[in-house]
Amino acid sequence: MAARVQHALELLKKTGVRITPQRHAILNYLMESMGHPTADEIYRALESKFPSMSVATVYNNLKMFIEAGMVHELTYGDNASRYDANISEHYHIICEKCGKIEDFSYPYLADVERHAALETGFEVHGHRMELHGVCKACSNKQS
Predict the structure, then answer these.
(1) Model-level pTM?
(2) Which structural domains are found in the chain, ordered by start?
(3) Disulfide: which of 56, 101, 124, 127 matches 36 by Cβ 3.0-4.6 Å?
């Protein structure tokens, strides 16, 4: 994982982005957690190490990571945006009880995109698939 963070930081340096300790910590947290945190969760996790860091600093860095193609912003309904450092093609399953989000892989749905383009005339730029259910921990609590 450390190599992945270092590679991401090198890419940022090549584009002229200054690597601050806060920027490094935010990116490291995202890549290590893989838990789809909100900006507030990232801030709370790092505030003891960086007492002068603000929530705005976290949001600004997340925006820059998104623009650099290193992070995806996940928006689900009225909840706060969550951030995903796994930029590979994958999907999400969301617990309806606790809100936990987990990644899962499935063969890319290119055929669905092609069919949609042919049927509608749209130029398809991508898709998002999410599944909803109850996670194992919440199911166990109900039992």
Answers:
(1) 0.78
(2) 1-84 (1.10.10.10), 91-141 (3.30.1490.190)
(3) 101
Nearest to 71 by CA among 56, 84, 58: 84
The residue assigned the tokens 């890549």 is: 31
The alpha carbon dihedral of 109, 112, 118, 124 has a sign of: negative
Residue 7 has pLDDT above 90, yes or no: no
- Evaluated on CA atoms 2, 5, 7, 10, the torsion sign reads negative
Task: Give the residue-averaged pLDDT of 84-103.
Answer: 88
Closest by alpha carbon to 64, among 7, 130, 120, 17? Answer: 17
Residue 20, CB-side half-sphere exposure with 13 Å CA sphere? 10
Rounded to whole angstroms, the Cα distance separating 112 from 132 reads 20
Question: Chain-centre distance of CA 128, in angstroms?
Answer: 13
Task: For residues 105 and 118, give the distance between their C-alpha atoms in angstroms, rounded to a whole number.
Answer: 26
